[in-house]
Amino acid sequence: MTQPSAAPVVQPAEERNRYEILVDGKLAGFTEYRDHGTQRVFFHTVVDEEYAGRGLASVLVQEALTDVRATGRHLVPICPYVAKFLTKHDDFADITDPVTPEVRHWLKGRLA
Question: Which residues of the chain have pLDDT under 50?
């Protein structure tokens, strides 16, 4: 029999500009961002294939956005997964800023 896994843990990794989700102490995925003034611009979310189908991306993004709220920031959902998550979780609407061409251009310059 296999032992049940511990609950996943989401933690900020500010030095890498991302939030990470750990399962049994192993990195299972992350969501990346860049800060633009008071906005946290999310642009990429990934969960390792080994952990797919467990709902970890949803847990990860929920915790990341909760942290954004706690820090007094707003979020910009350039990441398709974060944008899709927000369509089902309108409790973050008050801290969600629109994706604009200006923000996209700014992000492109930061990632180059």
Answer: 1
Q: Which two tokens stand for residue 69?
A: 């709220």
What HEC string does the chain produce? CCCCCCCCEEEEEHHHCEEEEEECCEEEEEEEEEEECCEEEEEEEEECHHHCCCCHHHHHHHHHHHHHHHCCCEEEECCHHHHHHHHHCHHHHHHECCCCHHHHHHHHHHHC
Q: How far apart are CA 97 and CA 112, in angstroms?
A: 23
Using alpha carbons, select from 81, 75, 64 the residue that is nearest to residue 97. Answer: 75
Sign of CA dihedral 99, 112, 40, 105: negative
